[in-house]
Amino acid sequence: MTINAPSTGALAGVRVLDISRILGGPYCGQILGDHGADVLKVEPPQGDDTRTWGPPFRDGVASYYHGLNRNKRIQHLDLGTPEGREVLLALVAEADVLIENFKTGTMERWGIGYETLSKRFPRLVWCRVSGFGADGPLGALPGYDAAVQAMTGIMSINGEADGGPLRVGLPVVDMVTGLNAVIGVLLALNERQRSGRGQFVEAALYDSGLSLLHPHAANWFMDGTEPKRTGNAHPNIYPYDALKTRTDPIFVAVGNDRQFASFCACIGQQALSEDPRYATAGQRSVNRDGLKQQLEAALAGFDGRTLVDTLMAAGVPAAPVLPVDAALTHPHTAHRGMVVELEGGYRGIGSPVKLSRTPATYRHAPLTKGDRFLDE
């Protein structure tokens, strides 16, 4: 999907000053930009650190940066100098939203912290992405995705049952923090319509990491049993797991007794759905080891891709286990508009949020220059 349309999105007319870097803040800014906000990103003279996070590179800038800075215009300021801060203040005067993720106390030391600027610009929505918040036992400490995965229990429940704790293979905490920042900004903008006042919004990696612990946290709150690693399997329901076939593994996501009966019928194992050990969801979860052995013995006679089609047609959630390139080039990916192409060779993931009247638009490729907000 190639789009260079003018902004007609749900946030058209909203001006966002993105002075953040790395991932959580820039991801928030990109999402707001996709949905119509005019986003001006201010970077230090050397640029955002992620410009160097490669390979691969294009014209000396890493793909990592390109993936987070679409629909923004970029200018460079040295906020450590009075001259840079003066330019920033002129931009803040025109902004509805400011996104930042400086180390706690940095902007206050420069004399441009929230307490100071909120008095001067009372309608400003100030969004801070931080590691742990400003206070408390871990307050003001720097936060990094993998370290927060470790601290919030995510690594402890990720990995094979007989293996060690494992980092999730993408920066899930950073990205969810960016999403939470977007939610906070939208809530604050909505409230501003009633009060006429902006407010301080904070999305912390630590909080976001803890928020991802369902159902493990819910299980622990109820019975106090320490959650264990279960590999690809769901901790509460079964079969909700990757299963071997004669060819490729498939993922089967059976959520109720009816689906299990249909699954068993499709693989010629109707007796399993009537076996007291497996007839109900609770019993299947308790007796999962024996059930997995019997299912994989039956699946050894099936071609995985063909079986997925059969199961889906029968209403049983199932999927092939695809590599990234196959997922990005899948026909349904194109149908959903999930790959965006812009002039200059840019390709990226499209917006997953679809609005019927004010859809996302893709107007600025990464590295588009700008020194002020656009005229409305």
TrEMBL record:
EC number: 2.8.3.-
GO MF term (any one): transferase activity
Xref: InterPro entries: CoA-transferase_III_domain, CoA-Trfase_fam_III, CoA-Trfase_III_dom3_sf, CoA-Trfase_III_dom_1_sf
Signal peptide coordinates: none
Keywords for the protein's UniProt record, in alphabetical order: Transferase
Highest taxon of source: Bacteria
Pfam families xref list: CoA_transf_3
Protein name: CoA transferase
Protein's organism: Variovorax ureilyticus
